[in-house]
Automatic annotation (TrEMBL):
CDD domains the record matches: SDR_c (cd05233)
Domain of life (superkingdom): Bacteria
SUPFAM superfamilies hit by this protein: NAD(P)-binding Rossmann-fold domains (SSF51735)
Database matches in PANTHER family: DIHYDROANTICAPSIN 7-DEHYDROGENASE
UniProt-recorded name of the protein: SDR family oxidoreductase
Keywords attached to this entry: Oxidoreductase
Biological classification of the source: Bacteria, Bacillati, Actinomycetota, Actinomycetes, Streptosporangiales
Keyword Oxidoreductase recorded: yes
Length: 249
């Protein structure tokens, strides 16, 4: 990954919590916000000071409180932790449906609930959720994942409506296919990884995978003062799929 591209000092004095921040998009977000001046508490299952499972309410409360005690405040929450699933609607059993929703949707509710008392005290409070083009694109073989990200989109808008009068802005990013460890793991298990990578690139109008840093810069924009009047939107970072109204087949 190239050097973070951010605006130095934009987040000076502010504290951000990034879930799933030990890998991929979340790691790039944590680095970008830190470059722009934020102190960042990375919440993840491992490889961080603030170990946390977003499916466990006690673990979430402990980790959010630990970040607030360590840095004295929380101004920005990036709900990014997420897991994938492949298959048609019948391709995953109930346990798998509940597991993915527990991480991707209820996880956002848990972490936000724990962070709200701190966000309410911040004059610059912002929440950014990591959604996906899967929320609206009708991707084949992604029924469960798409449903979970559709819920993230709806939740983003509902949260935005509920909390804007408290001074908390809520928005989300909707990335296309991003070059992260998750996608690389998927490619590694494909029968022909090179062909699969080429197909993923071809699906995006700009002909390549999105970089995690590009998503991180979009998150930083939505989390920072430059977007002070932007509320309840989804910001596509997808090489043109949403903007050009393209649908994968
Ligand atoms: P990744 O697997 O590289 O990173 C995800 C991180 O989330 C990991 O560090 C993992 O440990 C953490 N995590 C998973 N379950 C957790 C839990 N229960 N509690 C705490 N942390 C947990 O994946 P990524 O590609 O960086 O994806 C990050 C987010 O971006 C996800 O929400 C994903 O749905 C979304 N997204 C990814 C892509 C893509 O193409 N990679 C596209 C659109 C949206």
């Amino acid at each position: 990954m190239s050097e973070p591209a951010g605006v130095r000092g934009e987040f000076d004095g502010l504290v951000a919590v990034v879930t799933g921040g030990a890998s991929g998009i979340g790691k790039a977000v944590a680095e970008e916000l830190a470059t722009r001046g934020a102190q960042v508490g990375v919440l993840d299952l491992k490889d961080t000071e603030f170990v946390c499972d977003v499916t466990d309410d006690d673990s979430v409360r402990r980790a959010v409180t630990a970040v607030a005690e360590r840095f004295g405040r929380i101004d920005v929450l990036v709900n990014n932790a997420g897991i994938g699933a492949q298959g048609t609607v019948a391709g995953n059993d109930d346990a798998e449906w509940l597991r993915v929703f527990d991480v991707n949707v209820v996880g956002i509710a848990r972490v936000t609930r724990a962070a709200l008392p701190y966000l309410r005290r911040s004059p610059h409070a912002a929440v950014v959720n990591t959604c996906s083009i899967a929320a609206t694109a009708g991707l084949p073989q992604r029924a469960l994942y798409s449903a979970s990200k559709g819920a993230v989109l709806a939740l983003t808008r509902a949260m935005a409506a509920d909390h804007i009068r408290e001074g908390i802005r809520v928005n989300c990013v909707t990335p296309g296919t991003v070059d992260t460890p998750w996608v690389r793991r998927l490619l590694d298990t494909a029968p022909d990884p090179d062909a699969e990578r080429a197909a993923l690139c071809a699906r995006q109008p700009h002909g390549r995978l999105v970089t995690a840093q590009e998503v991180a810069c979009a998150v930083a924009y939505l989390a920072g003062p430059a977007s002070g009047s932007t509320v309840g939107i989804e910001l596509p970072v997808d090489g043109g799929m949403a903007g050009l109204r393209l649908r994968p087949v």
